[in-house]
Structure formats: C-alpha cells, structure tokens
Amino acid sequence: MQIKNSRAWVPNTTANYGYAIVGTAAAFFVRYELHPIMNSQFPTIFFVFNSTLIAYKLGWKPACLSAILGLTLAYYFFIPPYNSFELPSPLDLLNLAIYFILFFTIIYLIEKLQRERYRAVLVSRVSDSRMRIMAKLSVKRKK
Fold this sequence. Notes:
By secondary structure, this protein is mainly alpha-helical. It has one domain (11-115). The chain is 76% helix and 0% strand. It is built from five helices and no strands. It has helices at residues 14-33, 35-38, 45-58, 60-77, 90-142. Helix 3 packs parallel to helix 5 and helix 4 runs antiparallel to helix 5. The chain is elongated, with a radius of gyration of 22 Å. It starts with 13 loop residues before the first helix and ends with a helix. The mean pLDDT is 90.
C-alpha cells in the first residue's frame, strides 16, 4: 500500500524549534558546569543526547538546528583553545567532521524509523476503516 504522507509524523511548528533551542541551551549549561571535570574530553556528548531526543520527539528539522548549534557551541567553548574558533591541529578538524557525521547519521536514522512507524499506524487505520466498511456492507447485504 502506497502511503505518501508518512513524513508528516510530527507537525512542523515554530514551537518545535524553540524546544530545540531550549534543549541545546540545557545541554550547553550541563556541559559548561561539568567543564572543570571533563576539560576537552567529550565536547559534544550532551549535544548528541540532546539532538537524539529532539530528533525522536520533534523531527529532523529541529534536530538539525540543535545539532548545528551544539557543534558550534562545543567547538567554541569546549575544544582548546577555548573561547575561539581556532583549530590547533588537523586532528581537531577530523574530530569535528566525525561529530558532524555522527549527529546527522543519528538524525537520519531516527527520522527514517519514525516515518516507518507512522506509516504502519496509517496502514493500520486504513485497514481498520476498510474492515468496518466491509462489515457494514455485509450486514446490509444479509437483510
């Protein structure tokens, strides 16, 4: 059965983008508070969790916004030299590329899974409605 509107599993509202920004700010705050303990290790870990939750609940567009903001904040505040966009080594650029790929792979996979889940719900609803119609027609035919 061809279902064309499975991409509409979550409404695209401006509130979703607001939640993504608030989630990113919360992830930043937690990471910033733990910075004395973590130093430059795992600069994006809280942003990855945040983007994963945003993708699962609000869709891929707010999750992309969250990922881009998170990568920018992590790069500026948690990768040495701190409070700068300077890259001390090519290894840091490679790490950022890996984080970028990780963020968007997670977002892509969650979006695909959510669309398939929503498609299954839609197919189930169509099937149930067809069954009800057939039951009504069968009752009318018996009379």
